[in-house]
Amino acid sequence: MVKKQVSRRRNRASTLLNSKTAFSVVEAYKTIRTNLLFATSTSQNKAVIFTSAEPSAGKSTTCINLAITMAQLGARVVIIDADMRKPTQHKYVRLSNATGLSKCLCGIDSLEDSIHRDIFPNLDLITSGPIPPNPSELLGSESMVRLLEALSQSYDYVFLDMPPINVVADGLICMNYAAGAVLIARQKQTRYADLQKAADSIRNIHGNLLGVVVTNVNEKDKPYAYSKEYQYEYKDK
Asked: pLDDT at position 217, please?
C-alpha cells in the first residue's frame, strides 16, 4: 500500500510542466493561456474557477500547469485549492496540508501563514487545509469574499481549483466573484450530457463559461491538432 501511494505521488509530480515536457504539450498550454488572456481581458475580477462535470477529468493538473504557464509571462499568480472535499494541489509539490484555506476561512490561521510562497517562480499556493465538515458554507462566507478581495490586491490571477460541478455545488457558490469558469473534460470519459449539464448550471446562475479544455486527447482522434494530451475549445457565453 505504501508503495502505491509513493508511486501516485511521483506520477502526479511528473505531470507538471518542466524542461522535459513534450513540446506539443507545452504549446497546447500556451494556446490555452492565450485564449484565457483574451477571455478575461474585459473583466475586473481576477479569479478563474477550474472545475469539471465529474471527478478525475484532469482539472487540478490543468489548473496548476496553466498557472505555471501564466507565471512564466511574469504575472503574479496564486492557486487556491478550494476542493476541500478531495484536495490534491499540495500533492503536486509535496507540501503539508496541515494548514490552508479551511483554517484561514475559520480564522484559525492568517492569510499570510496560509500562503506557500514561490512553489514556482511568480506562483504561490494556498492548500485546502484539513477537510472541514462544512466546505460549502465556508466557500459562501464573507471570509471567502474578503480573502479573494485581499488576494486580488497582490496577484494578477487567482486560480480556484474547485470540485466537480455535477457532484457538489461548491464551484457555483464562488461564480459571482470570478471572471468565469473553465470546464475540464476528459476524452472517452466525460459524457456530452454531463458536460452540457455542467455548462447549463453555470449559465443558469449567470456565470461566465470561459471555455472547455479536453484532456487525454489522442492525436489520431482529432484533425489539425498538434497536442497528444490536450486540446482547447473556446466557446462564447
From this structure: 83
The per-residue pLDDT for range 159-217, each reduced to its tens digit, is 999 999 999 999 999 999 999 999 999 999 999 999 999 999 999 999 999 999 999 88
- Copy the grid coordinates of residue 94: 509535496
Among residues 110, 177, 125, 176, the alpha carbon closest in space to that of 149 is found at: 177
Contact 210, 233 (CB under 8 A): no
Q: 66 and 117 in contact (C-beta within 8 Å)?
A: no
Cell of 16: 507538471
Inter-residue contact 27 to 154 (CB < 8 Å): no
Residue with cell 501564466: 70
Of the candidates 56, 68, 90, 27, the one whose C-alpha atom is nearest the C-alpha of residue 184 is 56
Q: Are 76 and 151 in contact (CB under 8 A)?
A: no
How many Å apart are CA 7 and CA 11, to the nearest integer? 6
Distance CA 58, CA 61 (A): 5
- Per-residue pLDDT of 46-64, as tens digits, reads 999 999 999 999 999 999 9
d(CA 189, CA 210): 21
> Counting every residue, how long is the chain?
237
Residue 142 C-alpha cell reads as: 464573507
CB 195, CB 203: distance < 8 Å: no
> What is the rounded distance in angstroms from the CA atom of residue 71 to the CA atom of residue 75?
5
161: its cell numbers: 481549483
The CA distance from 66 to 63, in Å, is: 5
